[in-house]
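Thread amino acids onto this structure.
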């Protein structure tokens, strides 16, 4: 009863009044922790084995390519089958993936190709899982609370961006990188339990078209809606130019700031702090009617502070710049995702979100060149260029695509 009164008293936590959303949130919290820990552990391990910024880019490329190829199929699965079952079995496979990598490290036989193969499997599973994970939120809370639910989900991601990234750095420094992957497997088991508590939502598309017909219908639906296509383009800008800095973080930490694993963990946690602040603010906004302006303003802010991050050499200023980058990035991502979901019909929601996921599959087009150029030009020069491109493109959309700026 006390908790029920709390959710009603504070509108920022309104979605928590729904018991199913609370289970969903705990599962996302555990999964977010594994993602943040994997980012730190994988980057540290690859750089320890190779000392190459280029390797940091290509190791994760297989996973991104798998996401690109399979995301549309994942969207069809989300629309045609029970989302709860999709979430359960993909997370179960992630338990196995983490355990295999942990054992290889413990035995001292780990090689870079093992890490790349694990990243590819993760990409396959993410492509099949993420459309269902994003779409099920609307099924649980409804459209009116969607921004609140998406933001509260991001609160958990922000918390884990701070705590899990720092914890991963601590574990690597004092126990070893294998322990990080064992811990990730345990977290995935916890996520399996929360998924088992979710209601069965059924299929949102009950037509009997085959997979390819469903794919073509989804693509046609998007193509006939220019505003949604622009939102997809902005998501791609964020993936190609704004996000590759995170892949270069191990190189930046060691080469520019001379940080150890603990320092890398702290640096990786900085965007999580900004992300958490952003998520809490957006959750408090409720059904905010200026999401288009919010999206574009956040994108411009992200580009500007990436530039500041690139030119800074003082650790405090770098940390503060990354906090604001995290704030802007999360605001941009959540507003974009909410606009996509609220501007498409239920029948196509999974496929629209799967195309959104496909933009993540194009990550190698940003990370691989960024890694190669960082080895040649220096990591700061590359991040400076990425920030400038991001800033320019979001400004261009603000002035030349007013329909996006005016979206409620």
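Threaded sequence (408 positions):
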């Amino acid at each position: 009863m006390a908790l029920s009164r709390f959710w009603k008293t504070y509108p920022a936590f309104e979605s928590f009044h729904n018991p199913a959303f609370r289970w969903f949130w705990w599962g996302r919290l555990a999964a977010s922790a594994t993602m943040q820990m994997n980012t730190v552990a994988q980057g540290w391990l690859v750089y320890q084995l190779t000392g190459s910024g280029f390797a940091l880019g290509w190791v994760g490329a297989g996973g991104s390519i798998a996401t690109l190829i399979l995301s549309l199929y994942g969207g069809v699965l989300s629309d045609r089958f029970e989302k709860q079952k999709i979430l359960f079995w993909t997370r179960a496979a992630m338990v196995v993936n983490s355990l295999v990598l942990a054992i290889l490290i413990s035995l001292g036989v780990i090689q870079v190709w093992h890490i790349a193969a694990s990243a590819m499997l993760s990409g396959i599973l993410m492509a099949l899982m993420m459309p269902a994970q994003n779409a099920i939120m609307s099924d649980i809370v409804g459209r009116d609370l969607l921004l609140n639910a998406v933001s509260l989900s991001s609160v958990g991601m922000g918390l884990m961006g701070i705590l899990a990234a720092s914890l991963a750095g601590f574990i690597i420094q004092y126990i070893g990188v294998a322990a990080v992957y064992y811990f990730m497997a345990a977290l995935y088991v916890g996520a399996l339990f929360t998924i088992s508590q979710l209601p069965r939502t059924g299929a949102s598309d009950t037509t009997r078209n085959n997979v390819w017909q469903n794919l073509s219908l989804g693509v046609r639906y998007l193509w006939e809606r220019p505003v949604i296509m622009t939102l997809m383009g902005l998501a791609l800008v964020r993936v190609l130019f704004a996000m590759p800095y995170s892949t270069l973080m191990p190189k930046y930490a060691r080469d520019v700031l001379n940080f150890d694993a603990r320092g890398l963990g702290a640096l990786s946690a900085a965007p999580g702090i900004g992300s958490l602040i952003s998520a809490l603010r957006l959750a408090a906004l409720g059904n905010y009617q200026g999401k288009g302006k919010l999206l574009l303003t956040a994108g411009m802010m992200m580009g500007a502070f990436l530039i500041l991050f690139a030119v800074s050499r003082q650790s405090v200023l770098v940390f503060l710049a990354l906090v604001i980058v995290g704030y802007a990035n999360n605001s941009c991502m959540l507003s974009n995702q909410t606009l996509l979901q609220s501007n498409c019909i239920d029948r196509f929601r999974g496929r629209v979100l799967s195309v959104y996921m496909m933009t993540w599959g194009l990550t190698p087009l940003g990370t691989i060149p960024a890694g190669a150029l960082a080895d040649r030009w220096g990591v700061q020069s590359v991040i400076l260029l990425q920030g400038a491109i991001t800033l320019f493109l979001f400004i261009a959309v603000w002035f030349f695509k007013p329909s996006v700026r005016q979206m409620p």
